Amino acid sequence: MTRARSTWWYPALAGVAAVAAGLGVGEVVAAIVDPRSSPLVAVGGLVIDRVPESGKDLAIRLFGTNDKLALQVGTVVLLNLICAALGVLARRRRWVGFAGFAALGGLAIVAALTRAGASVEWALPGLVAAGTGVALLGWFLRQIDSFTPPEDAAAERTADSAADRTVTGGDDRTDGDLTGTAAASRRLFLRGSALALGGGALVGWLGRWLGSFSVANTARDEVAVELPTPSGGPAPAVPEADVADLRYVTPNERFYRIDTALVVPRINPAEWTLTIDGRVRRPLTLTFDELLSRPMVERYITLTCVSNPVGGDLIGNARWLGVPIADLLDEVDPDPAADQVVSWSVDGFTAGTPTAALRDGRDALLAVGMNGEPLPFDHGFPVRMVVPGLYGYVSATKWLRRLELTTFDAFDAYWIPRGWAQQAPIKTQSRIDRPRPGQRIEAGEYLVAGVAWAQHRGISAVQVRVDGGPWQDATLAAVASIDTWRLWSWRWMATPGDHTLEVRAADNAGVFQTADVAPPIPDGATGYHRISVQVH
Ligand SMILES: Nc1nc2c(c(=O)[nH]1)N[C@H]1C(S)=C(S)[C@@H](COP(=O)(O)O)O[C@H]1N2
Ligand SMILES: [Mo]
After folding, report:
1. How much distance in Å is there from the Cα of 130 to the middle of ligand 1?
2. What is the DSSP letter of 232?
3. Is residue 193 located within the same domain as residue 297?
4. Which of 176, 196, 214, 288 is the most exposed place for a label (fewest CB within 10 A)?
């Protein structure tokens, strides 16, 4: 069977090398046009928007927050397999290879053009990638033809041994067996495909790197200088809210990140506007400077993702600087029937928030600052929403560009058709952070500690129990407000052996979190966080 191998791997390599070069060039063009127009990013975005929830869940479970990297690596692997096959098919029938490459290019173009905020130039990366791929594939195949005698193809078609014996060559053939020109074109082919492969990867990486530079980077630094001081008074000081090695405030670089963006939008604030429209009497459009000149407040607010499993870490607490949304809504004068505010991101993501939650006096903000800095790009620069008490997917839109007043009947935001609830207030929950699950600790006194949260209701009690014994009251740390999580601790006289620790919390109404176990979908996980530890 070595015969067959020798004839297929050249065209397969041709297909792979051609697509590598195409993708690489596509990344460079995308760096110039818009990073989100890259064939890989655009098609990946399409996959993210189309893939059923179960598939996404699996990806997150397998790859964690690397799921986006995994998606792109997976796409590249699949694409290489397809293009290898196209190369092999094109050996016999050129048009099959060319049509295949054109179809892939077409997919990239359609994907790019249908992304939110796309303009016609977004077709260019896919066009250039496909063009490069087709041209290189054609050239590579011509080289292969000139060093592999046509009998090989015939032999392969009639199959197997009889034909094999009549043909010389295959794997055993070296340059020495070939005529001078054939050897030269084989060398040319091998060098050319190595160059296309290596060059494509290098140029692609360079394109990605170039794409991360934008005017937005310097603009963000300038905002740091100009970040307004809150006129509503500074955020209340939070004395002694840390417990052991646990931090009350999550540093920006450790804050969890959840979104559907393969490439983070980098918005130039000079070109940013926010429009508030829909069912309002006086629609409003604000520039970034206009937003910054409005009265600002600074508040500690804990964000939580609805996908956070019991014991999970998709939660973080930050000090947010921003404009109260209620003031802006008063100005536009909404139709009283408009019970939903849909917030639109520049990348097409939407969240639907009850209008009532934005006007009931809680600190719902259009945030521009996070822990004393302009919002990091990953967390929504230049402007995002933050609403105490509601899970992120119904309230915390990053890279915000529009608020539309409508009704829950009239519009389903991004996650609703995907099976998540329209209404999603945060459920009372608690987590044990020390010891870590499975950790071995020494017998004696140990400070068990963690966090509990029930945003906008507040935490009034946390209790811990060991091996299913009686619940014992934990000590609660200080909090800035009812809108944040609360650190807690409990001194345990740990005795040797295997133990389980459980925690539960009560909100300020005195209602304990439920013990009933529920998955994150459709409106947040419930159940007690339980961990096992070994004491020795
Ligand atoms: N534009 C945009 N905003 C978004 C999302 C998104 O996918 N796109 N995800 C939301 C979800 S599900 C959560 S939990 C929070 C997370 O915010 P963070 O990444 O700053 O922690 O952002 C919300 N805002
Ligand atoms: Mo989320």
Report:
1. 33
2. T
3. no
4. 176
Task: For residue 305, give the ligand 1 atom closest to its CA.
Answer: 14
> How far is Cα 166 from Cα 212, in angstroms, rounded to an integer?
57
Which residue from 268, 520, 299, 515 is spatially nearest to 388, judged by alpha carbons?
Answer: 299
* Ligand positioned closest to the Cα atom of 306: 2
Query: Do 269 and 401 lie in a common domain?
Result: yes
- Residue with CA at minimum distance from ligand 1 atom 1: 398
Q: How far is CA 97 from CA 77, 127, 393, in A?
A: 18, 16, 43
Atom of ligand 1 nearest to the CA of 303: 21
User: 397 C-alpha to center of ligand 1: Å?
Assistant: 6
CB-based pocket (< 6 A), ligand 1: 255-260, 303, 305, 345, 347, 349, 379, 392-393, 396-399
Ligand 1 geometric centre to CA of 392 (Å): 6
| 356 in the same domain as 382 | yes
Q: Are 38 and 211 in contact (CB under 8 A)?
A: yes
Mean per-residue pLDDT for 516-532?
A: 97
- List the structure tokens of 165: 């014996």
* Percent share of the chain, pLDDT over 90: 77
Give ∠ CA 392-484-511 in degrees, rounded to 5: 95
pLDDT computed for residue 234 by the predictor:
65
β-pairing, 440-441 with 529-535?
parallel
Domain count for the chain, please give it: 3
Partner residues linked to 243 by β-bridges: 246
My answer on whether 340 and 448 are in the same domain is no
Query: Is the pLDDT confidence value at 60 over 70?
Result: no
454: tokens are 């029930």
- Report the CATH number that the domain containing residue 366 is assigned in CATH: 3.90.420.10
Q: What one-letter code names the amino acid at 390?
A: L
State the closest ligand 1 atom to the C-alpha of 414, by its place in the atom list counted from 1. Answer: 7
247 Cα: distance to centroid of ligand 1 (angstroms): 22
With the most atoms of ligand 1 within 8 angstroms of its CB, the residue from 259, 342, 395 to mutate is 259
Give the separation between CA 182 and CA 170, rounded to whole angstroms: 14
* Tokens, residue 523: 């409106």
